[in-house]
Amino acid sequence: MKVLVIIPCYNESENICRVVQRLKATCPDVDYLVVNDCSTDDSARILRENGYNYLDLPLNLGIGGGVQSGYLYATAHDYDITVQMDGDGQHDPQYLYDVIRPVAEGRLDMCIGSRFIKKEGFQTSFMRRVGIRFLSFMIRILTGQRVLDVTSGYRACGKRMTALFAQHYAQDYPEPEAIVTAICNGYKVGEVPVVMEERQGGVSSIRAFKSVYYMIKVSLALIIHRLSAIQKGGKG
Amino acid sequence: MSPVFQGLLLVGDLVFLILIFVMVKNGRLSVRFSLPWLGLGAGMLVLAVWPEVAKILRSLVQVEVVSNMVFIMLFCFVLLVLLILCAVVSEYNERLKRLTQVNAMLEHRVRQLEEQLHRTDR
After folding, report:
1. How far is A207 from chain B (nearest CA, A)?
2. Which segments cross the bilayer (chain B) (predicted)?
């Protein structure tokens, strides 16, 4: 079974080496693809000099566009399972097989690594947890399914989901939208417990002043996705 | 409407229409995007030549002053154009995203082939 780990990378020169080395050491049998989203720091040089497998986007597309490039690559190279893993070192590769297993066994189409099932490890800031709970509540209202860690970027997708995301994927803050898209298209989505770590260097792309925009944009997108699914006769 | 104002409207409108045609001819405006502006120019021309049309429209929609009705119409037109432009920008954004992604994949392929070639040369 061919597995591709997509690692989006925007200005992660401090972390990217550690992330890739750790992944290669922990899971040597999976392929990886770093998607350099037109970083303005030394990320591209680091990727090139270390001979890593990477895509170099000539324009900054945002996290969604970057990850979608990975899904496109996975589709083009016929991978069975694709896994998203953040480039900031928050996602521990020792949980990779836990995230992959339900998809490989055909129990789920999308499996999300959740930090809120066992509530171990880095639990993010209070305000972010409030936002995540709100989005989780919205997804439950809109789809009827309970997903705790809706913003987790640690997730595995099967072949059909990968093909879908290669065609349709939100450009910024895509994680909650992807869940709604998956559920509304009749795919099985679930979570497994993982332990996440605090980012090991650099700064997060979601700053405080963007939070309000984030919440409004994502909430609106979730509602629109749900309404579109109802119109198309999708799963409700 | 005074004859002077009517004349100014006519001249202004003709200049506007000529400007649109010149921009299309020079390739600075596509035919697709010139259509709403040509429509606006044509509408203004009708109102400038036959001001009675504006009075008939005013009585139809029951607006007190003709100028208010013209301003509302213009405002609605500009809003519509802005909405259309936002839709066009969204469409181009999607195309640009896909172009960027395909470009990156091709660059990756070229890099791989170059590395293969380099290894074969050794």
Report:
1. 24
2. 6-24, 31-50, 70-89
